């Protein structure tokens, strides 16, 4: 496998892949720059990635043969070595390098939750608490974790935890508050008195990370260990609140935002790169009678599996850019004492976290299956992407729970709109429902973003309206509010999904408007935006047909436009994944390397299996007596 993607001529690229790159309709490098944010950001990312890939300490040689202990130890070593390297090279974790380091490391780090611990203190601690704890944490003099759920956070490494626990003063419960608790001795790493702590054991993935259990009995936490930027207990027991009581949940918002690009979308982009490159070199069956076996990417069904996912990568990418921007604005306002936009941010991030993790993890599994038998091999890189990312549907808030959080906000905003109040930007459409059916009268009309954005907006409005209507009726008929909520929760989740999808489609279309100085890029992204939107309607057609916004005839037109887009984007598919710009060592895939030499790579990987280098012990122990009992007859 190559060191960096081949811009030089010294690597023989599989001709089937070379032909895909022969006549690009757009400049791949410009698209890479757009995805990175600028030419300079591409330069910095490549510099960081190549610096990391060149360092032998970070080598992923024999990655797929490592034991859990080797992965854990390696990830701890990587984490400390990286800290040292960042210092030596003068990189800034809160600067341009910091944005890409985690992605460049491919997640093979062990102190991610230490980062969450730090984020919590920075966001929720007073200036004095920040001054006391942050230098210790930054220098790894203490190792932190974030302990909110009953199980699953503390493991083998940490010494301290931000524990989210109920604050009860004189029998009055003030809700969840963050406390710094020391769980292990800094001298010998043994649990502190009253603490039971350990690793929860083998998991579906995340072998490199220790997730733990924690029990606390009669632990006395000093008052100054309660993170008190926004709420404080005075010496006489008086509780003082500053700003919103929801702010103690802020760490979750921050982590949900940072995981979207670095952990979740990253995995789908890699899976698309692998499966689309493989589909351009794998030849199978017969398309035109008598002709050579075609590339599997020529099959319309293969295109329908992979190309909407490719479009989704771009859609989620632009969404994460927007979410980061909104997050920075709202966090800035919160620091200045204005909490007004926190509910909107929480709802936006909850819906998008749930939507993106679900679509990315399901999508990676589609990519894996689309690679046939080789997709099942760990060497394809696809199984480990899936087992890793499927965890993100659960951690940082289980997805149904998060959609219900978003729906709670939508229902409140819907009610506010009906009583004439103005609404925050992301839900402003709830004040002005779209009236009338879709006017499209030919398949080309469905390539107009105004047409499909209206359809998405209409669907979201209708589902929110209908959930609100049902709840109101249930309550009016005597049902308690909580029971009405539960009886409507299936529709509420659906409403949150529809709202989130509307936001994603709209954001993608808005990006197109800003690209008029790059017409070739604008053209190809427009096709991806159309495909993303039409795929969503095609696969959820019932929602759009239900109240007649679209007719059956219009769905046929839309299907024609949708299938046309598959063959259009198929031409650029390899270039569109090349633009993600992954080095082979980042993909860790025998199927997805830039040169497309799949069978050579598979053989090379298999030969690295240490078991292939010697006769296996089962020969002596079990096979030999059978094989040799009749050897004279052969
Ligand atoms: C470059 C860096 C790269 C980093 C890459 C990162 C990679 C990551 C690798 C892997 C890391 C894994 C780490 C995993 C960590 C965890 O999982 S930590 C645990 C996270 N847990 C959750 O997310 C729990 C999910 N549940 C909730 O969020 C619940 O809402 C709740 C917070 C537990 C509260 O539930 P409940 O008591 O039932 O309250 P509600 O009635 O639902 O809500 C009360 C009001 O509070 C509002 N609200 C809820 N959450 C938030 C929030 N986060 N922010 C703001 N506001 C919030 C909610 O809307 C309600 O408001 P009102 O309607 O006004 O009453
Ligand atoms: C890899 C990994 C790392 C993690 N790291 C951490 C960590 O560092 N710190 C930490 O504190 N936690 C951590 N967690 C825990 C994680 O945050 C929780 O697992 C997650 O929030 C879900 O909570 P739960 O496990 O209690 O699931 P549950 O809440 O029990 O969910 C189980 C089912 O119940 C349903 N359900 C629950 N509540 C509702 C509701 N109100 N309405 C409708 N349905 C509902 C869910 O939809 C789901 O189907 C981690 C988890 C994983 C997998």
Automatic annotation (TrEMBL):
Q: What is this protein called?
A: Acyl-coenzyme A oxidase
Query: So where's the catalytic machinery, residue-wise?
Result: 396 (proton acceptor)
* Family of this protein: Belongs to the acyl-CoA oxidase family.
**UniProt-listed InterPro entries:** ACOX_C_alpha1 (IPR055060), Acyl-CoA_ox_N (IPR029320), Acyl-CoA_Oxase/DH_mid-dom_sf (IPR046373), Acyl-CoA_oxidase (IPR012258), Acyl-CoA_oxidase_C (IPR002655), AcylCo_DH-like_C (IPR036250), AcylCoA_DH/ox_N_sf (IPR037069), AcylCoA_DH/oxidase_NM_dom_sf (IPR009100)
Q: Which Pfam families match?
A: ACOX, ACOX_C_alpha1, Acyl-CoA_ox_N
Name a biological process GO annotation.
fatty acid beta-oxidation
Chain residues that bind FAD: 149
**Could you tell me which residue ranges the Acyl-coenzyme A oxidase N-terminal domain spans?**
28-142
What positions does the domain Acyl-CoA oxidase C-alpha1 occupy? 249-411
Which keywords does this chain's UniProt record carry? FAD, Fatty acid metabolism, Flavoprotein, Lipid metabolism, Oxidoreductase, Peroxisome, Phosphoprotein
Judging by the UniProt lineage, the source's domain of life is Eukaryota
| Keyword Lipid metabolism tagged | yes
Q: Which residues form the Acyl-CoA oxidase C-terminal domain?
A: 448-628
Q: Name one GO molecular function term.
A: FAD binding
Known cofactor(s): FAD
Q: Where in the cell is it found?
A: Peroxisome
């Amino acid at each position: 496998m190559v060191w960096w993607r081949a811009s030089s001529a010294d690597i023989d690229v599989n001709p089937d892949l070379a032909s895909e790159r022969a006549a690009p309709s757009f400049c791949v490098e410009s698209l890479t720059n757009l995805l990175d944010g600028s030419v300079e950001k591409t330069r910095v990312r490549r510099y960081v990635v190549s610096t990391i890939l060149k360092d032998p300490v970070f080598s992923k040689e024999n990655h797929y043969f490592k034991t859990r202990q080797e992965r854990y130890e390696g990830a701890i070593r990587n984490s400390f070595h990286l800290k040292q390297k960042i210092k030596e090279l003068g990189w800034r974790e809160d600067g341009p390098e910091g944005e890409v380091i985690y992605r460049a490391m491919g997640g093979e780090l062990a102190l991610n939750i230490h980062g969450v611990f730090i984020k919590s203190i920075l966001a929720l601690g007073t200036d004095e608490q920040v001054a006391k704890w942050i230098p210790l944490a930054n220098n790894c003099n203490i190792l932190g974790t974030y302990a909110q759920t009953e199980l699953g956070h503390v493991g083998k490494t940490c010494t301290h935890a931000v524990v989210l626990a109920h604050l009860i003063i004189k029998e009055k419960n003030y809700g969840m508050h963050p406390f710094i608790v020391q769980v292990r001795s800094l001298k010998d790493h043994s649990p502190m008195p009253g603490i039971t702590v350990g690793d929860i054991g083998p998991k579906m993935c995340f072998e490199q990370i220790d997730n733990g259990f924690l029990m606390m009995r009669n632990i006395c936490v000093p008052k100054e260990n309660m993170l008190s930027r926004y709420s404080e207990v005075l010496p006489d027991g008086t509780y003082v609140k500053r700003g919103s009581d929801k702010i103690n949940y802020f760490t979750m918002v921050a982590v949900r935002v940072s995981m979207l690009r670095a952990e979740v979308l990253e995995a789908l982009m890699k899976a698309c790169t692998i499966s689309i490159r493989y589909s351009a070199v794998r030849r199978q069956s017969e398309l035109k009678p008598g002709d050579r076996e075609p590339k599997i990417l020529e099959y319309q069904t293969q295109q329908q599996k992979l190309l909407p996912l490719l479009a989704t990568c771009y859609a989620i990418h632009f969404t994460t850019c927007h979410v980061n921007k909104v997050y920075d604005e709202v966090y800035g306002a919160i620091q200045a004492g204005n909490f007004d936009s926190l509910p909107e941010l929480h709802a936006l991030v909850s819906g998008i976290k749930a939507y993106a993790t679900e679509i990315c993890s399901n999508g990676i599994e589609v990519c894996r299956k689309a690679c046939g038998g080789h997709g099942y091999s760990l060497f394809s890189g696809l199984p480990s992407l899936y087992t890793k990312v499927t965890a993100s549907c659960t951690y940082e808030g289980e997805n149904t729970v998060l959609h219900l959080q978003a729906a709670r906000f939508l229902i409140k905003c819907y009610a506010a709109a009906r009583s004439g109040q103005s609404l925050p930007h992301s839900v402003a459409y709830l004040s002005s429902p779209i009236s009338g059916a879709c006017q499209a009268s030919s398949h080309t009309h469905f390539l107009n973003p105004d047409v499909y954005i209206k359809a998405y907006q209409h669907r979201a409005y209708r589902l929110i309206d209908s959930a609100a209507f049902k709840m109101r009726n249930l309550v009016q008929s005597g049902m308690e509010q909580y029971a009405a909520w539960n009886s409507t929760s299936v529709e509420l989740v659906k409403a949150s999904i529809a709202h989130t999808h509307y936001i994603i489609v709209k954001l993608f279309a808005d990006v197109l408007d800003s690209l008029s100085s790059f017409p070739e890029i604008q053209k190809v992204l427009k096709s991806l935006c159309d495909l993303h939107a039409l795929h969503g309607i095609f696969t959820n057609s019932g929602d759009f047909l239900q109240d007649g916004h679209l007719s059956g005839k219009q769905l046929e037109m839309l299907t024609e436009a949708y299938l046309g887009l598959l063959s259009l984007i198929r031409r650029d598919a390899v270039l569109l994944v090349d633009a993600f710009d992954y080095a082979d060592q980042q993909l860790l895939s025998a199927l997805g390397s830039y040169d497309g030499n799949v069978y050579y790579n598979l053989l090379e990987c298999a030969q690295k299996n240490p078991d292939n280098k010697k006769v296996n012990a089962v020969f002596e122990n079990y096979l030999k007596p059978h094989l040799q009992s009749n050897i004279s007859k052969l």
